[in-house]
Amino acid sequence: MYKKIYVEITNACNLSCDFCIKNQRELKFMSEKEFKIILEKLKNHTKYLYFHVLGEPLMHPKINEFINLASLSYKVNITTNGYLIEKIKNNKNIRQLNISLHSYNSKYNINLDDYLNHIFEVVDTLENTFISYRLWGNSSNVDKILNKLNEKYNTSLSKNSLKKNNKLKDNIYLNKEGEFIWPSMNNNYYNENGKCYGLIDHIGVLVDGTIIPCCLDTLGIINLGNIFKDDISSLKDNKLCNEMIRGFKNNKKVHELCKKCKFL
User: Fold this and answer.
1) The 3-state secondary structure of 48-63, one letter per residue
2) Distance (Å) of CA 188 to CA 122, 183, 191, 222, 261
3) pLDDT one-digit tens code per residue, 192-232
4) Could you give the angle at which helices 32-41 and 63-70 cross, rounded to 10 degrees?
5) Which residues are CB-neighbours of 115 under 8 A, at least 6 positions away?
6) Nearest to 155, CA basis, from 171, 164, 165, 166
7) pTM over 0.90
8) Bridge partners (DSSP) listed for residue 4
9) How is domain 4-177 classified at the CATH fold level?
C-alpha cells in the first residue's frame, strides 16, 4: 500500500507562474466516469489521495463532487494556488488543503490584501481541515505575506525566524519551502546518485490515466502503464519499477529523468 497517490483531475491552470514547468500536454478535464474508475482501481492501494500534479484542481467544474465522491473511501488532500478557493467554501470532506502563497503575483489583477483576505475567509469555513500555507523563502512578497499572517493569526513571524513548519493555530500551519528545478531531459544537471520515495511510498496518475512514479514527472516520461487499462498491483511485476526501487534504496538513480532531477 502506498502512503499517498497523486491524481491529476485536470492539467489546466488559471495562472502562468514563472517558476512552473507549465503544461505541455493536451488540456483535459477528467470526466466523472473516469474519476469513478480511478477511485475503484486505487482501492486497497492507499488511504490518501492528493489532487495534484500539474494544473489547478479547483478549475475543475465538478471539484466538489469529486471531493465528496473520493471522501467516501479516501482522505482527500488538495494543492491550490488559492485564487479559486471560494469554490470549496464550507466543504467538510477535505482532509488537508495546501495553499501555495508564492503563487501570488500582481499581474493577475488582484492586490495582495484582497487575495489573502479571500483565502482567510474561506479557510475560516473549513473547520475540520488541516491548512498548510506554503511559502518560498525567496518570494518577492514574503515580508508582506508574513505581516498579513501575523495580523490574522496573532503571530510574530519574520523572514529570518521562519522554520520549516510554523504553527499559526490548531490545524493551521505555514510551511517554508525552497524553490526547485523541475526535472527535465533538457536539464544540464546530471547526478546518478540519489534517493527518492517515488514508487516506494507514492505514485501518480495523470489526467489521461498515465501512471507515473512521482508528481514531478509532469510529461509522463516514465510511463508505467495506464490506470484505465492496467491494475496498480501489476507494478510489483514491472521490471523498470523494481529496478528503480532497488536503485533508490541503494542511493542510485536508474532512469535518465531521475538523473536530471535536482529535487532528489
Assistant:
1) EEEECCCCCHHHCCCH
2) 42, 10, 10, 19, 10
3) 999 999 999 999 999 999 999 999 999 999 999 999 999 99
4) 20
5) 82, 83, 104
6) 166
7) yes
8) 202
9) TIM Barrel (3.20.20)
